Amino acid sequence: MLDNLIEARYLEALINYEDRWFWKHPGVNPFSVARAAWQDLTSGRVISGGSTLTMQVARLLDPHPKTFGGKILQLWRALQLEWHLSKREILILYLNRAPFGGTLQGIGTASWAYLGKSPANLSYSEAAMLAVLPQVLSRLRPDRWPERAEAARNKVLERMAAQGVWSREQVKESREEPIWLAPRQMPQLAPLFSRMMLGKSKSDKIVTTLDAGLQRRLEELAQNWKGRLPPRSSLAMIVVNHTDMRVRGWVGSVDLNDDSRFGHVDMVNAIRSPGSVLKPFVYGLALDEGLIHPASLLQDVPRRTGDYRPGNFDSGFHGPINMSEALVRSLNLPAVQVLEAYGPKRFAAKLRNVGLPLYLPNGAAPNLSLILGGAGAKLEDMAAAYTAFARHGKAGKLRLQPDDPLLERPLMSSGAAWIIRRIMADEAQPLPDSALPRVAPLAWKTGTSYGYRDAWAIGVNARYVIGIWTGRPDGTPVVGQFGFASAVPLVESGQ
């Protein structure tokens, strides 16, 4: 494997720079360890590693804290590796697992990502650069700090010349070679979803329910919308085929590589305030209890329960209004009235039973503020619960892998689900200026959290439930952001 797939120059640079006695020591180089221990003891903290390649593999396989105790554990794991594996097998483990920045792991991935070529065809300069990268990734990544990467490469080249591994002429020519990166983007489809699945599975091969074509279109859509989002804002999207509950698309952030937008945070499974997207559930459950019917008159008037005094989004009140119009216009006071009649604790328990837990502050009990975003929820759970409006009142459990069983639990009657879905579909009709002409086939609901921190839109069509969230992952407000303006256009685009 090594002879055919990895350039010998890289192996020479790696071993002679990182661990010159790799082929001879028992996993631990006693001289390097003694030197590192002396430096650590005299400084009172761990400042020098003294790690062999075997010890680095041990750390990759069994991460440990950078303490004296952690170093002892690393030494023990390295000895165990040497007892059970050959040197060649240990080296292959390093080549496959060494970190090279971001999501890059292994020399093959790094070579293609940074240089656009196979690791079997590396120049002296390229081999030296890749050999040193895993040492201090945060400071040497060539795509971020090419000058630092060049200096580190030159240090490796000088070491190779000093040890007589490479000739002075070869090293001199290699030093003149600039740090060049391939102008290409490595494919990283569904990176946050993949990270989640890797954390859940111990298998070497993971098959998921994602539709690669749809996933690619969703990620392109996210990139196209990135420029329209406010600074530090992100977005999340999930698409579920409600006929079989397979998750077909999952976009956890607007851009994995954009740290200013917290691109590494998966907002599909983050807990956020859902605003008004819970309202369809309380109306559907109240229909089943006989508390209301679609034409029931509700009161959109000022009300106060203890210290709780809710208001509407437009700060106005509309007096008596029928239930259907109250849902279409997403009025707050009628929803609070219905929740009070149904019972907040009962409502929260019903949602939790079908897989939509509402997250409350420690010690807090469900109360009337639930229906207006006074509790947290996850986009993935919300999308799963909304399948009840397409599955005759039964909410399905998301299927992430083809072998996952199809499970569902009753949330409301088939009739109540049908009525609420019809009302949500009619919500598309009174849009001003025909702003979203193609959204009409959807039954959809928006939500905006207090302080404009979150904007939601959940849509249901003949096949899919589409869930959208936009906002700032750090929870700071985005003035003027609300579900209709921020999230609904994405639902419409994602059909």
From TrEMBL:
Enzymatic class: transferase
InterPro entries: Beta-lactam/transpept-like, Glyco_trans_51, Glycosyltr_51/Transpeptidase, Lysozyme-like_dom_sf, PBP_1c, PBP_transglycosylase, PCN-bd_Tpept
Residue stretches spanning the membrane: none
Ranges where the Glycosyl transferase family domain occurs: 9-160
Domain Penicillin-binding protein transpeptidase: from-to ranges: 264-453
Organism whose genome encodes this protein: Shigella flexneri
Reactions performed catalytically: [GlcNAc-(1->4)-Mur2Ac(oyl-L-Ala-gamma-D-Glu-L-Lys-D-Ala-D-Ala)](n)-di-trans,octa-cis-undecaprenyl diphosphate + beta-D-GlcNAc-(1->4)-Mur2Ac(oyl-L-Ala-gamma-D-Glu-L-Lys-D-Ala-D-Ala)-di-trans,octa-cis-undecaprenyl diphosphate = [GlcNAc-(1->4)-Mur2Ac(oyl-L-Ala-gamma-D-Glu-L-Lys-D-Ala-D-Ala)](n+1)-di-trans,octa-cis-undecaprenyl diphosphate + di-trans,octa-cis-undecaprenyl diphosphate + H(+)
One GO cellular component, as annotated: outer membrane-bounded periplasmic space
Listed EC numbers: 2.4.99.28
Gene Ontology molecular functions: carboxypeptidase activity; penicillin binding; peptidoglycan glycosyltransferase activity
Family of this protein: In the N-terminal section; belongs to the glycosyltransferase 51 family.
Protein name per UniProt: peptidoglycan glycosyltransferase
GO biological process: peptidoglycan biosynthetic process; proteolysis
Domain of life: Bacteria
Pathway membership, UniProt: Cell wall biogenesis; peptidoglycan biosynthesis
UniProt KW Hydrolase keyword: yes
Record's keyword terms, sorted: Carboxypeptidase, Glycosyltransferase, Hydrolase, Multifunctional enzyme, Protease, Transferase
Pfam entry (one): Transpeptidase
